[in-house]
Specification:
This protein folds into two domains: 68 residues, membrane protein fhac (Ubiquitin-like (UB roll), Roll); 110 residues, Rossmann fold (3-Layer(aba) Sandwich). The protein is built from six helices and eleven strands. The termini are far apart. Helix content is 31%, strand content 26%. It is α/β, with parallel strands linked by helices. The longest helix is centred in the N-terminal third of the chain and has 23 residues.
Length: 225
């Protein structure tokens, strides 16, 4: 019995010594910093912002601090930093998804699908400008982003621009002079479906502010502020 206890204690002691050695001495070092999910975000900037260097003790890498540093890199929305044993630090990124952009003077401000401005000085490709939208009108920007995000991809691809002078006066503009007035972004999914239907009909101007009615109707856009 005593021998068994001694063996167990010896194993525990050796484990503790090994753990302490691994913590204080670079037995397990970082050989690779791997970045996944970066499409627009610069991988070099991500690695530098993490503060993780190859050759450092992998056990002593502060993953929370690394994630905090990376969160300030342009395009990064969410990030996790984890250890992939034995010698890799894995950085997993979720980027902002651009819905459109507004302009402050001549400076474009990128807007994500949540209606938040996430980057200044960049005009994202493949998304419309929110025209007549004041850059400090958070409600109008959020409404425009919600409306655009609700559209099916084929309509997003053909959408030329959006006007949102306020949160209740959204209008979308498509090729060949076609216009669809939404009003607010309420019932966005229904209005997106109504938009798809009316764009398949003849005519150039529609009002889907009541998405239960998909008939062609004229409307008068609000005057410029």
């Amino acid at each position: 019995m005593k021998k068994a206890v001694i063996v167990v204690l010896s194993v525990l002691l050796l484990g503790a010594v090994a753990s302490a050695a691994a913590w204080f001495f670079p037995i397990l070092t970082v050989s690779t910093v791997e970045v996944t999910g970066a499409v627009h975000a610069d991988e070099t900037a991500v690695k530098e912002a993490s503060g993780v260097t190859t050759g450092s003790n992998i056990l002593r890498v502060d993953t929370a601090a690394a994630a905090s540093g990376i969160s300030h890199v342009p395009w990064v929305d969410k990030v996790t930093v984890s250890r992939t044993w034995p010698r890799t630090i894995t950085i997993t990124i979720e980027e902002h998804v651009a819905a459109g952009f507004v302009k402050k003077g001549s400076t474009p401000l990128a807007v994500n699908t949540q209606g938040a401005i996430f980057l200044s000085g960049l005009q994202p490709e493949g998304v419309p400008e929110f025209e007549r939208t004041k850059p400090d009108d958070a409600a109008a920007i959020h409404a425009a982003a919600t409306a655009v995000s609700a559209l099916p991809q084929e309509l997003k691809d053909s959408l030329e621009r959006v006007e949102a002078p306020d949160a209740d006066s959204i209008a979308m503009f498509f090729p060949e002079g076609r216009e669809v007035f939404w009003g607010s972004a309420d019932r966005a999914e229904e209005k997106a479906e109504a938009t798809r239907i009316v764009l398949g009909k003849e005519g150039t101007r529609w009002n889907v502010s009541n998405p239960s009615m998909t008939t062609v109707r004229d409307y008068s856009p609000p005057p410029a502020p």
